[in-house]
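Researcher: Quick test of sequence recovery. Tokens follow.
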């Protein structure tokens, strides 16, 4: 009986070693992606697709020395604020002027722009207290 147990132990140990070697080899096979680039842009919302989260944004591109329109993605993790209030993509309007923080992701040669933060200022007038009676 002891011989059977020791052979099971050595066979199990050998299988475990093979598994660890395979994991280490495969871990080295993965293609390392560079850290995503983070950029900040100021511009205007051109179009919004609520069902997909796709937003077209017009901004001045310094390298091209021209105004361009690029499409990006707003996700459920994107923080959106209008005049300091947290809102959803449904509250954003075409033509809104926005400051946007974007994560530039590259996957298999494709570039995707993902908004992490959107700040819109519509310049809502401050509420003023009512004038006292008789003034």
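Model:
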């Amino acid at each position: 009986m002891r011989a059977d147990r020791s052979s099971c132990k050595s066979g199990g140990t050998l299988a475990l070693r093979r598994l660890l070697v395979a994991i280490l080899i495969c871990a080295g096979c993965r293609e390392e992606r560079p850290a995503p680039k983070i950029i900040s842009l100021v511009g205007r919302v051109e179009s919004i697709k609520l069902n997909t989260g796709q937003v077209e944004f017009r901004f001045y591109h310094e390298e091209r020395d021209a105004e361009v329109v690029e499409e990006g993605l707003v996700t459920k993790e994107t923080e959106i604020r209008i005049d300091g209030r947290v809102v959803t993509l449904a509250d954003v309007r075409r033509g809104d002027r926005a400051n946007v923080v974007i994560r530039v992701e590259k996957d298999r040669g494709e570039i995707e722009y993902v908004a992490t933060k959107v700040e819109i200022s519509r310049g809502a007038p401050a509420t003023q207290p009512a004038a006292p009676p008789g003034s």
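Residues 2-29 form the longest helix (28 residues).
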